[in-house]
Each structure stands twice: as structure tokens, then as C-alpha cells.
Amino acid sequence: MYSFAQRDDMEILEEPLYAHFLRESGIERDHKADLLRRREGDGRKVIDWMMRNDSFQKPIVLIKEMPHHMVGNLPLDFILQMDRIMFVTRDPRDQLISYFKVVAEPTMAGIGTKASYDMYKMLEENNIHPPVIDTNELVMNPETMLRKICEYLDIPFQPQMMEWESGGRKEDMLPGSNWNQNLHQSTGFTTKFEGEKKALPEKLQELYEEAKPYYEYLHERRIKV
Predict the structure, then answer these.
(1) What is the dihedral of CA 218, 60, 142, 131, to 10 degrees?
(2) By CB neighbour count within 10 A (0-12 exposed, 13-18 middle, 19+ buried), where does 149 fall?
(3) What is the pTM of this model?
(4) Closest by alpha carbon to 109, among 74, 52, 81, 69?
(5) In this structure, how many other beta carbons lie within 10 angstroms of the beta carbon of residue 38?
(6) Domain ranges across the chain
């Protein structure tokens, strides 16, 4: 998100359905009460606002959202109306090690790997085959990957996408939260995931094995360098 937020032609919406997810799923987070005060928790209203909003200031709107946030009886046909769809995936081993720092008892409902797989399959059934971005490959080859992503989006690559100032941004869903600590300290792709290659705690092994085949399905469909 921070990379694309540097563009001069794009607005960013970060996880507009997260408040809906917290309200509907019953999952507890230390920021839940504060977020529900600040953000709309009715997913249907959020979707209607996103799809009908004519107040965006820039010609391109990037919606960064998580499939597992779309719980309850949300009408998911709005996804089929998007001009472009991309999936971002991450090795669940790395994801769990990072996630475990802020959530003591990770679940599949919380990490969302199966939900991403399920949504991708739904799109395939509708003859839509979105490209998949693997975060590890993006970090290792940022300019090459960004150029490929821009080509898919039919927009020009902009060099300022490669770097950003440290600290939070106005688009942050959880400003000042420890969930974004590493991101706020970063100024580009080379430092984003430093230190993540640690041993997977034993208690996370079963969840990792459950998530792995869903990740591998998406990984096989990734944009290759």
C-alpha cells in the first residue's frame, strides 16, 4: 500500500471492511472498540459507499482488502465489478511468525489464507484469473515486480513508488498501532521483512500445515520475475 500511495494519480482505501469483520466475527482485538467508533461497521453500507462514491480526488482508487473480512451475508458481486483485481499472498510461515507478535492465538479465520483461496476459486469460476503477487518476490525484486503490476493495471510505472518516508500515513487503518510498527520504520522494500526468518513456534505448526496448500495454490499463479 505504501508504495502505491506515493503515486500522484491514486487514492488508497485500506481495509474498509475491517470494522465489519470485527463486528460480525466476534474476534477480539485491543483496537476493536476504537476502530468501531471511527469506522462504519455495517459492511453493506461500506460497499455501497465504495461503489457509489464520486468524491475521490484522483482518477485511480486502490482498495486494499482482505477476503476473510467479508464475513456474514455480504453481497460479494461487487468484486466482479472491479476494473482490476490482484491478490497478494505471503508464505504462511513468515506470516504466522509476524502475526504471532500481536495475536497470541492465531486462527485460520484471522490469517485468512483459506479465505483468499476460496475467493480466488470463486473468481476462477466466473472466468476471472487475477494475477497473484508473492510478497517475498516483491521485496526481493521490487522494481521488476512493480513494473509488471503497473503493466497489468495499464498504468505507467512511477519511480517514486520505490521509496517512502518513515512514519505513518493518513490512509493507515490503525494509526500508531504496533501492528504497523515495522512498516512505519521502513523507507522502502529492502527493510520491510528483515528479521522474519526465525523458527516457527511449535504451537503454530498445525495452523501452518493447514494454511500451506492454500498458499501453494495461489503461489503457483503468481507473477514471476
Answers:
(1) 20
(2) buried
(3) 0.88
(4) 69
(5) 12
(6) 2-219
Most confident of 8-12, 29-33, 191-195: 8-12
Q: Report DSSP letters for the chain, one per residue.
A: -HHHHT-SSEEEEE-TTHHHHHHHH----TTHHHHHHHS---HHHHHHHHHH----SSSEEEEE--GGG--SS--GGGGGG-S---EEE--HHHHHHHHTTT-SS--HHHH-HHHHHHHHHHHHHTT----EEEHHHHHHSHHHHHHHHHHHHT----GGGGB--SS--TT-SSTT-GGGHHHHH-SBGGGTTTT---PPPGGGHHHHHHHHHHHHHHHTTBPP-
92: its cell numbers: 504462511
User: What pLDDT score was predicted for residue 31?
Assistant: 85
Name the grid cell of 97: 511468525
| 2-219 homologous superfamily | P-loop containing nucleotide triphosphate hydrolases (3.40.50.300)
| Residue 23: predicted pLDDT | 93
Name the grid cell of 19.
470494522
Q: What integer pLDDT is reported at residue 191 of this predicted model?
A: 47
Given a cut of 90, is residue 53 above it in pLDDT? no
What is the residue type of 197? K
DSSP string, 129-159: ---EEEHHHHHHSHHHHHHHHHHHHT----G
Rounded to a whole number of angstroms, the CA Rg of the chain reads: 17
